[in-house]
Design brief:
Length: 265
């Protein structure tokens, strides 16, 4: 059964206890903990030794599984703290973006060398570092993703396949997935209106509101036998609890209905 979760960044105006309880109430199996400095730190990595036990207790109280963590940064010191915290919390995946610039060979090679080093560090802590293709980044499309995994070749590295970024790269995510699924360790999911560069307002990132063929994407996931986390990641301005919960519940209902139809829930 595919596990559905939410990145806690959707609840960035609220504490971790409130966020995890809301995620459970919306029907999700688990959560992705946001540890993104400057955006949303439900786990403050610079104080992870004292913060992580609080996150663990909040997850236990809410009955919410911890599926992944998003750090975004490739800074070695910061990721070391993230991997230690993930190991303590039993979180199997830490997600980052690639950084760098699109269509710049020097930037791409630098990105690959950094990811190789960070993947080796992740492996040391028994965690998988997953990176997504990102609009404007050195890795931004399916071809650049495939080139990256062929160059990195590490058990500590995987792909976080976010259909909204692939959509904004001018591809069809439901078709692109087949070529990268064997490398995937995580899925960031959201819908997207238009071709970008932004995925749209938070409400339009709710699954089913945008232009991505999410039914086709989930069918491709199920057909390929993917069994990793699928976590809703909605970015943008801070939402009220009502707004956040509307996005969460609407997206869960949409995804759960598709997966039930496909025999994956």
């Amino acid at each position: 059964m595919l596990k559905l979760g939410i990145n806690t960044v959707l609840y960035k105006g609220y504490g971790i206890k409130a966020a995890l309880k809301a995620i459970k109430l919306a029907g999700y199996d688990g959560a992705e903990i946001s540890a993104i400095q400057g955006m949303c730190e439900h786990l403050v990595l610079d104080a992870w030794e004292t913060q992580a036990p609080l996150v663990k207790a909040a997850a236990k109280e809410a009955g919410t599984e911890l599926l992944s963590m998003e750090v975004a940064s490739l800074d070695e010191e910061r990721l070391t703290k993230a991997f230690k915290a993930a190991q303590y919390l039993g979180i199997p995946v830490v997600n980052v973006g690639p950084g760098g610039k699109s269509d710049d060979e020097e930037s791409f090679i630098s990105c690959i060398e950094t990811l190789k080093s960070r993947a080796a560090l992740a492996e040391k802590y028994g965690v998988k570092l997953c990176c997504k293709a990102h609009v404007g980044g050195a890795i931004y499309s399916t071809p650049t993703t495939l080139r990256a995994v062929e160059m990195i070749k590490s058990p500590g590295f995987g792909v976080d396949m976010d259909p909204s970024h692939i959509h904004r790269a001018g591809e069809k995510p439901e078709e692109a997935l087949a070529s990268v699924v064997k490398y995937m360790g995580h899925v960031h999911i959201r819908d997207c209106k238009g071709e970008g560069p932004s995925p749209g307002a938070p409400k339009d990132q709710a699954c089913g509101r945008g232009d991505i063929n999410l039914y086709g994407y989930f069918k491709a996931l199920v057909d390929a036998g993917y069994d990793g986390p699928v976590c809703l990641e909605v970015i943008g301005p801070e939402q009220t609890m009502t707004q956040a919960q509307t996005i969460a519940a609407e997206s869960y209902g949409y995804m759960n209905a598709i997966l039930k139809q496909l025999g994956a829930r």
